[in-house]
DNA sequence: TATTTGGTTTAGACACGTCTAATTCAACCT
DNA sequence: AGGTTGAATTAGACGTGTCTAAACCAAATA
C-alpha cells in the first residue's frame, strides 16, 4: 500500500514531468512540495525501490509506467473532486483545490465511480485540466498554446488555467478569465506583461508573464475537448 | 493540530463512554481500535498531556469537555458524510460506514457546512444515529429502549441500529430492519435470541441477543427525533 | 587543467505511532 | 493476610517521514 505522502510525490513528479519533461530534479520536487532536498532524495530512493520511478544519481528522476498510473489515479481523483465540488456543492472555482488535495487520497474506487457517474464522466475539471479516464491511459497532452505565445490584436479563448496558486486563481476568477471566455490581447509590455480585454465586459486586465505562461488558449473557431464546468 | 489517529482514539473513547459510561479501560479501547494495550497506554498519555482526557492510572479514562468536543466534531463529520453518501451518491445503507471513516478526518469546515446545507441540516444519519449539531453540544442521549428490553407480542418501531459491523448492517438491511420500520416480537428464545415479524412483509427474522441489544426502538405512538434518511 | 560553485547525496537525529517482552499493580480468593 | 491472576504499564525496538549539517559530485569558469 502506498502512503499519502508517496502519492503526493508521484503526483508532483508527474506534474513536473508534464511541464518540463524528464528528468525531474531533486530540487524541483523539493520546491514543488515544500520539502528539503535530502528529504526528497530519501523518498525518491523508496519510490525507486518500489519500481515507481527510475533514477539516475545526480541527474534526476522519471516515472515508470506503474508510477505514472498511480499519479494518474490520484490526478483523476483530484479533478473529479474539483468538478464535483463546483457542480454539486456550490464551491467556487478557486476554492476547490485545497479540498480536493485533502480528499483525493482517501476516496474509494466506488466513490470515484459514483462521483464520475453523477457528473456524467466529464473530460475536464473546472480549471480546464483534463481528467484522466477511468482506464488511466495518459491523456494526450493537447497542443494548446499559452497566452504568452500570442501577440497584440489576437482574439483567443481561454481553455485552461493553472490550479496551483489559490491567489492567482482568485484573481483570475475575479477578472473573469475562466475556461470558455474569449479575450483580446490589448498590449504586451516589456517582461511579457500582457494586457487583455475580456469579451462582454469592458474590463481590461494585466497579467504578469509568469501567469500568462500558464494559461492555455485556443483560436475561437477550434475547440478544446470541453470548456470546463461552469461556476459562480 | 490533532492527527487522524488521535481523532480516532477520541471518537472511540466517546463511543465506549456512551455505551458503558466512564471510565473507559485501556483494553476496551485497544479492542475497539484493533491496537495492542501498550499502544493505547502510550497514546492515552499523549491525549492526557493535551488536556483531551483525564486518566487515572490502572483505572481508565474519561474525556474532558475539550476532548468530547473534538469527538463530536469527528462524529458530526462521519454522520453527515453517511447521510450525504446515501442521499446524493446512491450509496446503500450498509456501504457508507467505511467511506465515511476514511473521509471524516479530511473534510474542511466549509465542506461540512455545505454538506449539511445540501441535506437540510438533518438530525440523524441513515442508521438513526443522531448527528451532533454544528455547535457541538452533546446530543441528549435519548432514552430509547433496546430491542432486547421488549418481550413477545410487543409492537415497536426501529429508531436506530449500530453501524459498527458491516456484515450485521448488511444482514439487517436485507431483513428490512431499518430505522422507521415497525416490527412485532414473535418469540424470545433462550440466550435472548429474538424473532420478529417485519411489518408489511410476511417475513420473520431471528436476531441474536448481541444484535438485539444494539437496536434502539420506540413505541409506535411516540416519535424519536426523526427516522433516518431513506435508502435503497 | 584546476578551481569554484551549486545542486545532490550521505550521515545522523528526531517525532510519531506501533509492536513484543517484561514488569508492576490491584483486585479477588482462599 | 498472602497468593494468584489478569489487566495496565514500562522498556525497548522498529518503520516512516522529516530535518540539519557535512560531504560529495559534476558542470561551468578561469
What is the topological layout?
The structure is a homodimer of 232-residue chains.
Chain A lengths: L3 H17 L5 H8 L3 H13 L3 E4 L3 E4 L1 H24 L7 H8 L5 H11 L25 E2 L8 E6 L5 H10 L6 E7 L5 E5 L5 E4 L1 H4 L3 E3 L14
Antiparallel strand pairs in A: 1-2, 3-8, 4-5, 4-8, 5-6, 6-7
Helix pairs in contact in A: 1-2, 1-4, 2-3, 4-5, 4-6
The structure holds a DNA duplex (30 and 30 nucleotides).
Jot down its keywords.
Arc Repressor Mutant, subunit A; homodimer; transcription (chains A, B); DNA-binding; 8 strands; two-stranded antiparallel ribbon; SH3 type barrels; DtxR family transcriptional regulator (chains A, B); alpha+beta; 8 helices; transcription regulation (chains A, B); six-stranded antiparallel β-sheet; transition metal ion binding (chains A, B); 232 residues
The total of beta strands of chain A comes to 8
CATH topology of one domain in chain A: SH3 type barrels
| Low-confidence residue ranges of chain A | none
Largest sheet of chain A: 6 strands, antiparallel
Corresponding CATH architecture of one domain in chain A: Roll
Multimeric state = homodimer
How much beta of chain A, percentage-wise?
A: 15-25%
Average pLDDT rating of chain A:
91
